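As a warm-up, study this chain.
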Amino acid sequence: MLKRFKPDMICNSIYDIDLGKLKEKGINYLIIDIDNTLVAWGEFEVDTRVLSWLEAAKKLGFKICLVSNNQRERVKKIEKALGLPGVYSAKKPLKSGFLKASYILHEGKKNHQTAVIGDQFFTDVIGAKRLKLFVILVRPLKEKEFFLTRINRIFEKRILKYYMKDEEE
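Now compare it with the structure written out below.
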């Protein structure tokens, strides 16, 4: 059962994602988590490297939508800073937030030309895999996180260890 939820790629950060290879795979849409994927949890300042990476993705033709379990106020501030649409209170790993992002990106059609990028197995990966989307798991930007996320990380480490062991065999 765990194999069903295995991320398609695991990278240290968004900067290690080969956007050209995603294009070669036919991926044209990106749904990207905010907290600890693009912006450190609890912070509002966007790193200029993130802005450059997003600009490079847009130049390659990717359409991008943000998705977050965080509240409206935070997501709207990040949306404004990045110049991208977003979904707040997404309730990941439920499908609804990803489906709202899909609606924004391609008029509501579930589209398998979509990749989801996020830092959490139990929200980003499981939610996206439930919709059979391509998933890229990145390492969190900072260790400072919501307390429930810190608890989830304990179990996440075991699962990722299992996936890495499976890769070696």
